[in-house]
Amino acid sequence: MNKLVITILSCIITASGFAQSPDKMSYQAVIRNSSNKLVANTAVGMRISILQTLATGTAVYVETQKPTTNLNGLASIEIGSGTVVSGTFATIDWSKGPYFIKTETDPAGGTSYTITGTSQLLSVPYALYAKKAANGFSGNYNDLTNKPAIPTKVSELSNDKGYISKFTEKDSSVTNEIQSLSVRNDTIFLSKNGGFVVLPKSNPSSNSVTANGSYYFESTTGTLKANDSAIIKYSSSYAIPYYKEYSFIIPKDGLIKNLIATPTRNDVATGSTVTITILINNKPTALSVSFTNSDGFNIKSNTTSSISVKQGDFIAIQYKSKGSAAPGTNFQAKVELAPNAPNNEFAHYIGELYGGGIVVSVWKDTSGAEHGLVASLKDLSSGTAWSNIKDTLIGTSAQSNWDGQANTKAIITQKGHKFSAAQMCDTFTSNGYSDWYLPSVLELSDCFKSAFIINNILGINGFGNIVYWSSTEYNYQAVRYTNFSIGNGTDSKDRNYYRVRAFRKY
Fold first, then answer.
1. Which of 15, 129, 242, 308 has the highest CB neighbour count under 10 A?
2. Gap between the Cα atoms of 376 and 421, Å rounded
């Protein structure tokens, strides 16, 4: 028998329902099974009872319904619209409460109800009683008896305090408070020292749309050629923090996915820092990279988070110099605007404590089914050898860049195997889940992209600036690993001892 968990979201009178029939209530609940998985896209049987006085009191109304849950396990019904078992919902006297609502659910869609929940109805349902108030006022002034005449002049009021019947202009001018707006180039001015506002530069189109609908807003080496951004040149004459920015309008709803930047000419002066940041509606985001003189012409990227944006939002690439920069130093920046992906499409999210660990990645396959990558909440080892077998090639069965589960199986079934990082993960269990494995190099890389979120949640148990083994064999002597301070790398199987973190998929 399936044990269900119901989370009540709401029990309210809908506006549309009230206009058509005030004797109904909308009711929503999220239904999960005993493994805490959503009961999605499933017809379920429900019996709803309204109990009077006590949670075990007499049922004044009972009905049954058969709603179908949505992708997120949400069942929505309208009490008063089901198949009546007993009583009449419209005749319930809400003034004789308290009342309780009792729900019984059959996940198979029948009448074998396997879970029962009862909760008290508080203030919301008693709005139904308002329409039956014995001495209600229609709202029409003409329906009142002994109604007084409505004054049409201030002088007719019996008490005119608080009403202005005359005024005196203190400075003898009735026009000097009037201000006017004017526009010059990209600036709006308010007269009489009222200040001004500079309008953002607008460039809503992009000449760099990819096949999947993404947009790339990219600066170029010459401002005359820029369509989406602009190069800002810095001069050594600026000895204090200084920045300029270029803004444009977001052409469609979507997600800002990454920032990639690099110096394109000369270098940052010694002792200086140049920071490139993405701003949305003039507010800095987590997408930011910084350069110092030691960076030379290295490309830097920030893909640790995605930022939801709406059509009409302003995006700015901000270049900020602290100290001074070498004369003529240019920086190039590129931002990807991915196709729209509303947050509510996914049942789970990065950073959610779920599936025995923490979610580090979510995606959907071509059929629309959701999948995710879960990392254990702690390291399984602070330092261990990759395997007891040295300098022996396993082969292609352990060399997948993306399938850590297949790699793990190949490692622990190798002839002569006694212990390994993969075996630690394979024998690990957490919260009833036992399908853990040593992640592939790309699975670790995906986790690296989410490290900002993960580390803020897990704290000292997060992924610090340390190295983790992957399950991806490189050759007979070397294995891929991920350094969470710089990214991926390759190292000897028998030379180093790295950390181990278990992963699983749902």
1. 242
2. 14
- Which CATH number among 2.60.40, 1.10.8, 1.10.3470, 3.30.1180 corresponds to the domain 4-130? 2.60.40
What is the token pair recorded at 284?
């800095």
Domain residue limits, the chain: 4-130, 215-338, 353-505
Q: The pTM is what?
A: 0.36
365-375 average pLDDT score: 84
State whether CATH 2.60.120 applies to domain 215-338: yes
In angstroms, the CA 131 to CA 358 distance is: 50
Calpha distance 329→232 (Å, rounded)? 9
CA–CA separation, 289 vs 298, rounded Å? 12
How many angstroms separate the CA atoms of 438 and 447, rounded? 13
Q: What is the mean pLDDT of the chain?
A: 74
Order the strands of the 273-280 sheet from edge to edge. Answer: 242-249, 314-322, 273-280, 283-291
Other beta carbons within 10 angstroms of residue 484's beta carbon come to 19
| 284-318 per-position pLDDT tens digit | 888 888 877 777 667 788 776 677 777 777 777 77
DSSP state letter for 344: G
Percent of the chain that is helix, strand, coil (3-state, to 5) = 15, 40, 50
Q: What is the DSSP string of 390-420?
A: -S----GGG--SS-HHHHHHHHHTSTT---B
Reduce the DSSP state of residue 438 to 3 states and report it.
coil
Residue type, 141: Y
